[in-house]
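Q: Joint fold for the lines below.
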Amino acid sequence: MKRKPVRLMLIATAIILLIFLLMQPLSVYHFQNYISVLFPKGMIGIEQRNLLLIIQAIMLLIVIPVYILTFIFSWRYRAQNTKATYDPDLVDHKIAEVIWWGLPLVLTIVVSVLTWVKTYQLDPYKPIESKNKTLNIQVVALQWKWLFIYPEEQVASINFLQIPTDTPVHFEITADAPMNSFWIPHLGGQIYAMPNMKTELHLIANEGGDFRGSSANISGEGFASMHFICRASSEQEYKNWLAEVKKSSNNLNFKAYNQLAKPSTNEVALYKLEDKNLFDQIMMKYMHPQKGE
Amino acid sequence: MFGRLSLDILKHNPMQDMAVVGMVLSGLGLIALITYLQRWKWLWNEWITTVDHKKIGIMYIVTVLLMFFKGFTDALMIRVQQALAVGDSHGILTAGHFQEVFSAHGTTMIFFVGMGMIFGFWNLIIPLQIGARDVAYPFLNAVSFWLFAGSGLLMYASLALGHFSEAGWLAYPPLSGIEYSPNEGVDYWIWIVQIAGIGSTLGAINFLVTVLKMRCEGMKFMKMPIFVWSSLCSMILIIFAFPILTATLVMLTLDRYMEMHFFTAGGGGNPMMYVNLIWAWGHPEVYILVLPAFGIFSEIVPTFSEKRLFGYMSMVWALIMIAFLSFIVWLHHFFTMGASPGVNAFFGVSTMLIAIPTGVKIFNWLFTKFRGRVHFESPMLWFFAFLLNFTIAGMTGVLLSSPPVDFQVHNSLFLIAHFHGMVIGGVLFGFFAGFTYWFPKFTGFFLSEKLNRYAFWCWFTGFLIAFMPLYMLGFMGATRRLDHYEEATGWHPLFLVVAVGAVVIVIGGAIQFLGLFWSIIDRKNNLDHTRGDPWNARTLEWSIPSPPPIYNFAILPVVDQIDPLWAIKRGVAPPQHKKYEDIHLPVNTGIGFYIGMLSMLFGFGMVWYMYWLSIASFVGILACLIVRLSSKEKHMIITAAEVKATEEALRRPV
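A: Joint structure:
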């Protein structure tokens, strides 16, 4: 067989990989204002990011040796290298195998324990402890927009969410549409929005700013337009906003809601909430057999 | 009479029209070519009616290439759309069309390219590796293939007649329910997947029995080649998982056709039940695809290292462990459903456990090279590309398996990057490796090594350019399946990079495609002069001439250790039989073909509510089965003298 330029191949692959390795920190640096998952603005997001980085670091303990060994063995034991030992009967080695069943096992146990503890700690249903009173917001995924209801404040909005910073927010989420997923990456992880079901999510913003939120699950034609702005601001600005909305002449009751629920993609709209139990009424739509609308 | 079929189904946007015209023209061209060459009879006698596993295997691979072309084009359209559709621009596709495209991409790649490849390789390799002359049920094998091919035709039909599903490749209700998807798209999806799925179940049963019952003398379970082991695990997974898919699809069908309420939110149905069921099939499906790829690498690494696979027992137990674990992790696909932390933590940890046997396999492959003589022929290059990419995807897989982390990357492009690393880096590179490795076995000549190398470089670099930025995009909050996005997201530059990567991959694919034709034209210069064992390999398929005669083994081998051909070469094999004998083989039949085509018509009738057509086709299928099952099975006999003459001719040096 013809001689193959092994050296060239290995060096070229290594260079390509190194370029991609270097590109990662560079692109993180370059895009840092946009990388919401790695630079979150709320406690939940930060905890999730930290867990991600820890697991990543643990995994690298095994990935890096694999990479190095791949290159070393490929080079040292290339067929052209007559100086290397050739031992075709080396097919079993107890200690070696114990090591590579054991090493991944130990690392997996570490990651598992970490995950187990953190899964309880970061359960999206668990209220966030804070000196500030929790704000309740009800979220309804519609075709194809988000309806946010502030039941206690008696306001509602479409595709816009305003919250005060350092205040835990408790979201109750449902859908009057195909399944969606409610996600504000700057604040923390997502949860599904499903018809006939109520899911919950606790988030908090520790810094102010405009954060993009969206639906992470395909829900039909207008799905790509299902994004919104979540504005975290000071308590005072939030109160001003509430007062502003309450002056609105747009009233939202069940009848107006049924108009709104028809398929469309919408701009931001703000409403005064007339019907305090709107969310429950939406849930109830699916509680009895029905034919069409 | 025609159900909901009307002339409207021919109305498409210009781009789709172009594809349809191209498809029809190439179909007509092919028909004209076959007529011109007067090959119809040959096609019917040698291929369509065949029950020879080697020919069926080749037909699987050809079908896969045709489907791959479609899935690949879909992928390219997705990439172009996402590179262009930023801000006010809406790219080249409408939202609905874009959704059809990505649904078709996933469906094609998993059900036709992935499944077709594993069945192609099983047909080609397994009987040869276990020293058998045929599969257990040759007729059933033909039926499985034609069900697969018939369903593939239905997939192409959905491009030309009406619409395909817009609900994604797994069609979650309520979106896939009749209320939100009233047109024929989801019905196409249901029947395509249903027919292909039944073909897969039957095929797996066939190969399971083949492996259990037809191994040659002395090949105990722990002496089987590791590709057979990995395939065995994969078959068992199919037999357990695919009935779940079939049942789930039946329920979705009843929801859509008869207003039942298994999965609709009103009327007491529960969409999350569908999501659970579909992933109870869907997760094992991933391993159904990747285990045979592991098997292929486990054959290639020892051959090109001139050394037995390191830690055979470890490898087998790792396979069994992966197969078992794959059934208890399905919930990790929807941690975000809002289950309690206990449930999520359990499924997170069970998922992480899979990292252990997978890690073991990687170390065993590495240490097979240790103190070996490593040859970097192109199959080994694909292994190299696999190892480097698959490790990254495996690492991000562990990240995804931790529920709190998953909440932040679920359904984002991070996830897309992860599983494309698995299916391209793992499955596809595995099949490229297997394709170049076994190609000379079935043709007698090599694929062009030079073109293979060019293709390798394109795929390796292209893959990194096309998928590494997706991890970053996921971190930037980019969700999957977006047909447009705002400029303010800052995603656009990365989407452009990704599109460049896609172009590099396309170049790689084109080189391979042309390389295949070039190698066939130029075969005189690429002949395998060893006439059967070009790689100095170790397993039984290389002990017979290339291409193998119809009966595979003139004399059935006797085996007493792993790597039997290697044992023969080292002079440590057990004594072999010497005498030629009469060989019985099944005769060709067209019934498998009829059943496949009738199933396609059945599906087509169901999609368009032409129930008379479905009923007629179904009766036709039953009639075919009755005719076949009540007729006496005919055999042809190849006499010992004929076998001897054939063998001597085949063994004569060129």
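Q: Anything notable?
A: The two ends of chain A are 73 Å apart (CA to CA). Chain A has two domains: 6-81+91-121, 135-284.
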